[in-house]
Known about the structure:
Its cofactor is pyridoxal 5'-phosphate. Keywords: Lyase, Pyridoxal phosphate. By secondary structure, the protein is an alpha/beta fold. It is 32% helix and 16% strand. β4 and β5 (87-93) form a beta hairpin. The structure holds pyridoxal-5'-phosphate (PLP) and zinc ion.
Amino acid sequence: MRFPTATPTLHCPACDRHYPLPDLAWRCATCQGVLDLAGFTPAFPDPTALSGRAPTLWRYAEALPLAEPTAITLGEGMTPLVTAPGRPDVRLKVDYLMPTGSFKDRGAVMLVALAQNLGVARMVADSSGNAGTAIAAYAARASIACDVYVPAATSPGKVAQLRAYGAAVHQIPGSREDTADAAAEAADRPGTLYASHVYNPYFFHGTKTYVFELWEQLGGRLPHTLVLPVGNGTLVLGAHLGARELLAAGLIDHLPRIVAVQAAPCAPLAQAFRAGQPVPAPIVAEPTVAEGIAIARPARGAQILEAIRTTGGAITTVTDDQVNAAHAALARAGLYVEPTGAACWAALSAGLIDAPESASSRGLPESPFAVAPLCGSGLKSKPPAS
Ligand SMILES: *Cc1c(COP(=O)(O)O)cnc(C)c1O
Ligand SMILES: [Zn+2]
């Protein structure tokens, strides 16, 4: 018995069709839509049980769809929460201190644990960098062959990291979408798991631990506002899922507002949000220093818009100049992130995200109104343009 509950399935909400996990489906064969996880009922652990558990994301075992993969874990999770420079009302969660240098480890360890349970021999991933490096690291640890497709323009530091983990790196000319198409084609080979951080719902059950940790670190509550970067929405959708689970467990009494941040040169979700559209329209993306969120066609776009709307949230955009300024300011405060990792701080420090009256009047330093992540390490990224 390797799964903690009855074996889950992948489910297409549009067609109500189920796919057994060993089929290795990555999207719905009927409508090509995205699949969610069904047949698994998460339960947040009894908070009194948490204090004795190791400071990794596996402390939330009852809420996770897989048992701790003891042979492949790298101790991921429970990253520090620090006060933002000059803003005692804001905290920054230092997710760049994850084993491979980004929050993607939260989801990658789930995908590789799933691959291990299913006994697949090969995984395919595609990424602008950090998801690929995370999956490659855990795949290496699990001795599963891993092909990673990246855009040709990906930072040399990330490509070097991928190669060091032993992944077969395929650098694809053209857009981020061309890279995804090349990976999807390779993933259709038999016996291959498309370890997609976008399509595979196990990834979101990993990223949801971001809010579980926040809830613990803030003494059993969430902030009024979660400021999150959004490209494909793996952190936004994970955070939303985690908050809903805390709500279902009676540990919070309402969902926190999610304010997502896109790069102005590539902001299909912000445009759709403003226009009140349910699905993002295709856009022509311009280059941006925030490479990690430059996603012109987010496959879960409709889910992302719906999730943010249900929290009363918003999607804002930041310019490359604002990202570069925030990147420099963070570094001068001792926090060295990749440019994308400065996007949320750029929005906060440019005054784009206000504390509502109700939250600021509470204004106690121990209860910040907003928390933003520092998503990716500066050590592996190309320097900002300025
Ligand atoms: C992946 C990533 C993001 C955005 O995540 P999405 O899942 O695309 O929304 C933001 N910042 C960094 C550093 C990332 O690696
Ligand atoms: Zn379908």
